[in-house]
Structure formats: structure tokens, C-alpha cells
Amino acid sequence: MVSKFKPKQFKHVLAAVDDSPQGQSALSFAIHQAKEDHAKLTILSVLEEDELPVTTRLDANEMSLLQDRIDKALMDYQQIAKNFGLKNDRVEKMFAQGDNAGETVVKDVLPHTDIDLVVVGAHSRTGWSSHLGSQASYIAKTAPVSVTIIRDKKISEDEEKIGFLNRQ
Fold first, then answer.
1. Of 111, 132, 143, 163, which shows the fewest CB atoms inside 10 Å?
2. pLDDT higher for 29 or 124?
3. Which DSSP letter does residue 85 get?
4. What are the beta bridge partners of residue 98?
5. How are the residues of the chain apportioned to helix, strand and coil, as percentages rounded to the nearest 5?
């Protein structure tokens, strides 16, 4: 019986991240898993429109600046993955918008991809999308694929003191 056991190997890992310390931990784990499994890595950030002030949502310039900031972070995250040995053609970035990050991942992203593992950080209190981690439970309960929720106790304790890339 033991000889038939074969560990799960993922083909396409989704790192659902924001700029919080817990998002950094999720990205780190997803990079490791993708490298270990020789899998493709997609790094996703979701802009939760419902969490934005109405004045920001109605101001095209403000929305554009926010999207540019997130895109810049995604490019940085892509480079981090490449620096840790993932090949250029195996790392991509993805940006999505929606009222709820968890629903956006499950209903808008997963059905249109071949992703077989979602990695998300536990709830964060900082970052541009501080609610992505609070959606981790929803993603774990409803996603049709494996989900790993990353909790970093040390980061949780220090979260108030540190930022991911100290973006302004």
C-alpha cells in the first residue's frame, strides 16, 4: 500500500496577495511551492472596490493611481519570484477588481484558469487590501481547488510595526 503513495504535485499556484505582512508570507510560501513542484505561479491582487471611499471610486484619476500602485507592487512581486529561481515564463501577475476579494478569486479568477492551488494570507490589519486575508475562510470553503492559508505568528505580532514594501 505504501508503495502506491505519491505526494500531490501542483501545476499552477495562485498567490492571492496584498501589501500586508501576511500577504508577504503567502507570496513566500507560494514561490516555494511553485519552485518545489516546478509549477507555474500567478500572483494576484484584488482591488476591493467596496472598501474604497465613494469619492475615490468616482474619481478616475484616483482609481488609476491606485491601480498603478498595485501594478507596480505586482511587478516587484514577480521580480522577487524570479530572483528566487522561478523562470520568466513560469511567473505571471494578475489584477482583479470586485466588491469582495474572496468572491472575486472563487467566482471570477478560478473558473477561467487552470489553477490547482490557492495560497492566501490570514487576516491582516494593514495594506491596500487589508481584507483579502479576512476572505481566506470564504476561499477555503468555496474554492473548487486546494487552498493553503498562511499564518505567520511573528508577523501577526509585529504587523502594526512593519509594512511589506513601505509603499506610499
1. 111
2. 29
3. T
4. 48
5. 50, 20, 30
Q: Which H or E element spans position 13?
A: strand 12-16
- Kindly give, in sequence order, each residue whose CB lies less than 8 Å from that of residue 35, ignoring residues fewer than 6 positions away: 84, 85, 86
Q: 86 by DSSP, 3-state: which?
A: coil
DSSP-derived secondary structure for 102-159: HHIIIIIIGGGS---EEEEEPP-SSSTTTTTGGGHHHHHHH-SSEEEEE--HHHHHHT
List domains and CATH numbers for the chain.
10-158 (3.40.50.620)
Residue 15 DSSP code: E
- DSSP class of residue 10 equals -
Looking at residue 34, the DSSP 8-state letter turns out to be H
120: phi then psi, degrees, rounded to nearest 5? -140, 145
Instruction: Give the torsion sign (CA, 98, 100, 101, 103).
Output: negative
Q: Rounded CA gap, 52 and 86, in Å?
A: 34
Its pTM stands at 0.82
